[in-house]
Structures are given as C-alpha cells and as structure tokens.
Amino acid sequence: MFCIVSYSTIEKLKLLHDYQKSDYGLTVYSDYHGVRPANMSKWIKQFLLAGLAGLIRPKHNQKYSLETKLTAVMSTPILKCRISPV
Length: 86
Description:
Helix content: 40-55%
Largest sheet: none
Strand content: under 5%
Radius of gyration: 21 Å
Shape: elongated
Number of strands: 0
Order of helices and strands: HHHH
Structural class: mainly alpha
Number of helices: 4
C-alpha cells in the first residue's frame, strides 16, 4: 500500500534549494528525504521552465456561471445550430 503525500509550494522550493546545495545525487537525496526521484525531476523541470509559478499546485473544480458556459457552447461551430440559450 502506498501513501500519497502532497507537498506545498514552499516544501518543494525548500527541497529543491537544499538539493542544489547538497553534494548528493538526485536519487540518494530523494530517498533520504522520502520523495520519489521522478517527482524531484518533475519539480526541477517545472521550476526551470516557469520559476516559482511552476511549483504551484493547480486549483481544480473552477466554477463557471451559466452565461459563461452557454457562451462557450455557442461559440463551438458544431453545436451552434443545436443549442439555443435559455
């Protein structure tokens, strides 16, 4: 059984900073801190590409108004003639 651990942006940044200062390889450092090496690699790539914003977890389940949803559906060419606004 695996335990799923979520890391905050600050925790990721601290791990990356400490890894950069260390003399250890990625696998040894990751194992010592209980982080999967694949996650560390992903965080490094995200940080190099987008900076701190790359480490921020995306927010899910964004809510949209009915008007926004209808506008999106109506702007789709295939559905224009099938759906009429309420």
